[in-house]
Amino acid sequence: MIKLLVIFSLSLAGLVFAFTENEEQNVDYQVRAAIADIINDTLNALIRNSSDPLTINELSMNFENNSLLSGGLNITKLRINGIHEIVAPYIDVQIFSEVFNMSVNIPNLDISFKYWLDTLVGGVVPLYGSGLNSIFFEGITVNASGKVDVLGKQLHNITANLWIDHAVFNMDGFLNNPEFSALVNLMLNDNFCEFIKDYQEFVSRVISGFISALLDSLK
């Protein structure tokens, strides 16, 4: 009889533990899903409230402590078509660490801008110029992670990886030389998407800085 009571008690304790653990996991999932919904709603609101085309007066980027590229880039009169087509099929949030991971898909982006460029490639080769450029991207995927301020509905310390299926460049003003610009366009159209795949670490730093600057400009 005592043995039966012990077995019953252990079984009951096991059921209670399993139920409690189940409930905790369920609550954790619900909270994470709710926070993910907040991020998704914030992203959708940001997209919805943004004009399409999106216009930004000026962006500046400095490439420092980088063996591949150093110097600066200034972009003005940036115009981006395709913002309203952005979707985020995957969002995950870790509650206690306030870390988020998300995937963003962009079917098409049509971009035009004026630029001023003064850089060194590999610390040796100068790459400079200024002009009016246009770029068409197709099949963009951005996987991003960072910190999320749920109360402030803000994203911080963003690290992003980029993949692009197809790109068409019409760049002007490289080395202030039309023939060189035509050669650059040819090389970019043939190799840009493969470059993105092969140099993910460098591309991640550039795109992460661009996304942070873009989000700051929209606050």
Short structural description:
By secondary structure, this protein is of the alpha+beta class. The protein is built from 3 helices and 6 strands; from the N terminus they run αββββββαα.
Any descriptors?
Bactericidal permeability-increasing protein, domain 1; 3 helices; 219 residues; alpha+beta; signal
Question: Which word captures the global form?
Answer: globular
Regarding CATH, which class?
Alpha Beta
SSE string? HEEEEEEHH
- Helical amount: 25-40%
Termini gap: 70 Å
What is the helix tally? Answer: 3
Tell me the structural class: alpha+beta
**How big a fraction of the residues is strand?**
35-45%
The counted number of beta strands is: 6
Report the uncertain regions: 3-25
Rg: 24 Å
Which topology does CATH recognise?
Bactericidal permeability-increasing protein, domain 1
Count of domains: 1
Q: Mean pLDDT, as a whole number?
A: 77
* CATH architecture descriptor: Super Roll
State the major sheet.
Answer: 6 strands, antiparallel
